[in-house]
Amino acid sequence: MSDFAKYKGIIPAFYACYEEDGTVSSARTKALARYFVEKGVKGVYVNGSSGECIYLSVEERKQILEAVMEEAKGKLTVICHVACNNTADSAALAAHAEQLGADAIASIPPIYFRLPEHAIAAYWNDISAAAPKTDFIIYNIPQLAGVSLTMPLFKKMRENPRVIGVKNSSMPVQDIQMFKAEGGENCVVFNGPDEQFVAGRAIGADGGIGGTYGAMPDLFLKMDALLSEGKAQEAQALQYAVNEIIYKMCSAHGSMYAVIKGVLRKNEDLDIGGVRAPLANLIPEDEAVVEEAAKMIREAREKFL
């Protein structure tokens, strides 16, 4: 039986950390892992969308997880996203994650080809078989993957005892309710869209995994605490403030992740580099957006913490 408590809470999506020449930086990866330990979050979600996984090689993704585990093992729950667009590479990353002692692996469905559900199930089960002692979390993000986790497919995957939950990044909050109802007590469902964290938790999400948490983990921790204390209106007010910050971070020429990394440099004195092409890096005109987003986070901290 899995220890479900270790998954319930605030789990930031881990960012890819680069040197100035664009190569993966183990030193900066370790620094970001230490930052999350110090912030007191429940865990980290490594090599997912926010980790620019589709633009990284298998070896780079292994390098990142190795650096994270050196800092976070025993201090944070570590979920490693292992999906590649072929089964062999995905299975290799899964086996590597288990060897390092990650708490769980996760996977989107294969993208590009529109596979039948039996092929998607076989892909996920083959990945899980490569890490037979490790929990498996399905990553449902249909707006990017092009494939939705249907209830029949979820029921089929629940026949695999290692499948313990869903990272649900679809926009309908009702999907969380449906996955919780089907999965029961032995299933963890994470809210994915950061802008609906309060709504997701209210309808049954056990916690959240999000790409903007890293810029302001304390604000999401506070939101989660307010909900646990039954202070829904205060949590809603904080959600609105957080959403304005997210909208601001999405308003630059550069990628939102490039803006977030700029915010971390300003507010946390944490430099983890830029983003990898074809994601757009910041241009000089984006500096005003970074500064305003960083200021909005500081002001929200003063108001709500």
Q: What does this protein look like?
A:
The protein is 48% helix and 12% strand. The protein has 305 residues and is an alpha/beta fold. The protein has one domain (4-217, 224-229): Alpha-Beta Barrel (TIM Barrel), CATH 3.20.20.70. Strands 1-8-7-6-5-4-3-2 form an eight-stranded parallel sheet. Helix 7 links the parallel strand 6 (163-168) and strand 7. Helix 1 packs across helix 2, helix 3 packs parallel to helix 4 (117-130) and helix 11 packs across helix 12. The model has no long low-confidence stretch (mean pLDDT 97).
Count of separate DSSP helical elements: 12
Rg: 18 Å
CATH architecture field: Alpha-Beta Barrel
Q: Which consecutive residue ranges, at least 5 long each, have pLDDT under 50?
A: none
What share of residues is helical?
40-55%
- CA(first)-CA(last) distance: 36 Å
Give the strand content: 5-15%
Secondary structure topology:
Blueprint: E1 10-12, H1 26-39, E2 43-46, H2 58-72, E3 77-81, H3 87-100, E4 104-107, H4 117-130, E5 135-140, H5 142-145, H6 151-157, E6 163-168, H7 174-183, E7 188-191, H8 197-203, E8 207-210, H9 217-228, H10 232-249, H11 256-268, H12 287-304
Parallel strand pairs: 1-8, 2-3, 3-4, 4-5, 5-6, 6-7, 7-8
Summarize the structure.
With 305 residues, the chain is of the alpha/beta class. It has twelve helices and eight strands.
List keywords for this structure.
single chain, 305 residues, alpha/beta, TIM Barrel, 8-stranded parallel β-sheet, 12% strand
